[in-house]
Amino acid sequence: MAYAAWDHPEPLTLGSAPLPEYGSGSLADLLPTLAAGMSVPGMTASITELTPADRNCVFLIDGLGWEQIKAHPDEAPFLTSLLAGSRGGTGRPITAGYPATTATSLASVGTGLPPGAHGLPGYTVRNPQTGELMNQLRWQPWTDPAAWQPYPTVFQLAQDAGVHAAQVSSPTFERTPLTKVALSGGTFHGRLTGEERMDLAAEQLAAADRALVYTYYAELDGAGHRYGVDSDAWRGQLMHVDRLVQRLAEQLPSRGALYVTADHGMVDIPFDEQHRIDFDEDWELRAGVALLGGEGRARHVYAVPGAENDVLTCWREVLGEQFWVASRDEAVTAGWFGPPDRFDDRVYERIGDVVAAAHDNVLIIASEREPKESAMVGNHGSMTPAEQLVPLLEVRS
Questions:
Q1: CA distance linking residue 368 with residue 279, whole number of Å
Q2: Which of 33, 99, 230, 314 is the most buried (most CB within 10 A)?
Q3: What sign has the CA pseudo-torsion 350, 356, 362, 368?
Q4: Which residues lie closer than 8 Å to 298 by C-beta, 6 or more apart?
Q5: CB of 93 within 8 A of CB of 100?
Q6: What is the C-alpha to C-alpha distance for residues 227 and 232, in angstroms, rounded to an integer?
Q7: 325-365 pLDDT per residue, tens
């Protein structure tokens, strides 16, 4: 519902947005910290709570937020037993980075860079060279991966330094552009089942005196999007994930460390007009907008040239009580996409003229442009704790 300008409550202040812990406790800091502990040149141990190990395995479970583990102790007894030791024994989570979405987070993990540097700052963003929206998860339309994300991954740097680097994941991901720009380096091992991945990850971890191994599980996220994190299907997946983590933990070789983390958490959004604001049916939000990017809880809004200020004003008036609404410059300066001094100029125009991050339990859907995304029960992307906080659970041999 839109309010008249004179009776709308004060918009959320940008300073009230809880920024990710870039540089000390974000996903982008994890692999550089582990690699620094293995003496890889140029790496910095920014997550100071972690103790170095010679063999490090990162198991990233798509969609497994910190708050979701805490809310389901019965379904995840092994994960729950590790909560107190998260983040080097502090019992604290780390943060995903903004936006809290898979393509952005995987690039942050693999490159060790914040979104404003690696250049994947959302689910869909505008390609400044073509003017089209680019889906950075599916890599559509095709864009040269090396031009889009030119920095080497931590896996590549570790391999160059003599560390055995390996990724163990679904065969589907072996040759995808996202894998190339975010997770390449070392050897890729495709295995279909979660159990096979756990067993092979343990083997790869033991294959050298210094090893950096990454493995991944996606199905929990899929259940959350389709059925919600309050569903039996999601709980069943969580129970399976719990067993997989225990299976891998029990096979750790000597001098090994397992870190269980995630790319984002998730929230369920009710299916009604109060919680799902339809851009395609809202003339106020559409006015002056050329492209709508991002996703429901983390929107990039690209204005018609000359309409940038009008779009910003309108979105603040209509949504400012439920969303943090910023101009591109405000979001960059505030550090949403990482420290401003690490922001890469090539990324600037990929970010929306207006950036809207959800505060309340609400979505901006686009029922005609994005029918599949608009039908999802579970969603993520913003800076709320349920989306932003992810575990850093640790098991050492």
A1: 9
A2: 99
A3: negative
A4: 98, 99, 100, 101, 122, 123, 355, 356, 357, 358, 381, 382
A5: no
A6: 8
A7: 999 999 999 999 999 999 999 999 999 999 999 999 999 99
